[in-house]
Amino acid sequence: MRRERFWVAAMVAVLALIVASCAGNEEGGGETAATAGTGATAATGETAAPTFTTLEEGVLQVGSCLDYEPFETVEGGEEVGFDVDLTEEIASRLGLSVQWIRADFDTIFTAVAGGQFDMVAAASTITEEREVEVDFSDPYFNSRQALVVNTNETPDLASTAGLASGDVVGVQKGTTGAVWAKDNLSPNGIQIQTFTSATDGLRALEGGAMTAFIADEPFVAAAIADLPSLSVVEGIDTGEVYGLAFSPSNPELRDAANAALTEIIADGTYVTIHEKWFPGAPIPPEFQPA
Questions:
Q1: pTM across the whole model
Q2: Which among 152, 144, 171, 145 is positioned nearest to 230, based on CA atoms?
Q3: Range(s) of the domain holding residue 64
Q4: For position 42, what pLDDT does the model report?
């Protein structure tokens, strides 16, 4: 049944490309972006086919840090992770291949808004501040922040309430964890140290360079698996949800991605991907098949 749906979706996408190409020839062409169609099928069973553009015909160029396990990283020269699998599935249902582009997280939204790539898939929390610059997809993941400590250095530190003035807490630059730490810890005299890479911050914590580190809980759980001196001592619920980010000038691509995401959730593919990367973790009802 799934193979039939993919075949139909592919045929719809091909026909849409042919129509778009013919229309372009009649009008004399001249567009630099590729026009495509989505064959994503909505949960209602009706075909949703908004037209959309990508920077390169047939390709979804995706910006990501690619150093944020288990969401996105590189192993053996291949991109892997939860965001990677979800993105590849969305692209497949839109008749596109994926080109991954490495980008720093603190400039990634400016980059996609400026047309350096089509989409951001980087465990990005949807915030009002970021929505001024980019358009987000529907939420695709719920996440908390986590307080990580070096149990060899601070075995008695069990929560942010145990931090004292002069302590140093690391965060990744440009993240919601950094915003939370600045708003909630800095007023108490706690120093905030920023890192371009969260992985570098955790290594600094392992080396005893700071008191604690704050980052997204799912990332931390995977990142410290091989760092026995580090431990998550507190989950910080900030009501965060992740979204894929797009340039505001390309709402059609966002809408097409949302249509594909709706189908991925409705047919159970989301559950399969989630269980692969977060085995045993609960899946919120909004991401389970209806």
A1: 0.71
A2: 152
A3: 2-140+243-287
A4: 39
